[in-house]
Write a structure and sequence with these properties.
It comes from Lupinus angustifolius. The chain is α/β, with parallel strands linked by helices. The chain has helices spanning 27-37, 54-69, 84-89, 115-125; strands spanning 9-11, 21-23, 44-49, 74-79, 97-102, 105-111. Strands 1-2-4-3-5-6 form a 6-stranded mixed sheet. It is globular and about 35 Å long.
Length: 127
């Protein structure tokens, strides 16, 4: 039940020791995790980012704070240059892009460094 934690790589942040954001560096590991999440009702927020993207760097601390605040939500970070196929599957054309999912289905999307709008969407889909 669920993904094997040894197949995932977590990217812990110093500012929020009690929370973490999952990062994936292989399409196979991402697909395994994604497939296992389809049976769960947990809200998943996928942050599509790039190392060269200024607004993505700005949103980094925001996502860290949200991961600490909304511990019942699963936060995932995917580098669009590293996992191009995954970003293409989700039709990501600009960054930062946030895809909110539940049971393997997209429930909302947000493009841009829009802190308040992202938090509003997370709260909207928590229930």
């Amino acid at each position: 039940m669920g993904a094997n934690i040894s197949n995932m790589e977590c990217y812990p942040y110093a500012s929020s020791q009690s929370s973490h954001i999952l990062t994936f560096h292989s399409t196979a590991k991402w697909k395994a995790h994604f497939d296992s999440s389809k049976g769960m009702n947990k809200l998943m927020v996928i942050d599509f980012t790039a190392t060269w993207c200024g607004p993505c760097k700005y949103m980094d601390h925001v996502v860290q704070e949200f991961a600490a605040k909304y511990t019942e939500v699963e936060f995932i970070k995917i580098d669009v240059d590293e996992l191009m196929g995954v970003s293409q599957e989700f039709q990501v054309q600009a960054m930062p892009a946030f895809i909110l999912m539940r049971k393997g289905k997209v429930v909302d999307k947000l493009v841009g460094a829009k802190t308040e709008e992202l938090e509003t969407l997370i709260e909207k889909h928590l229930n």
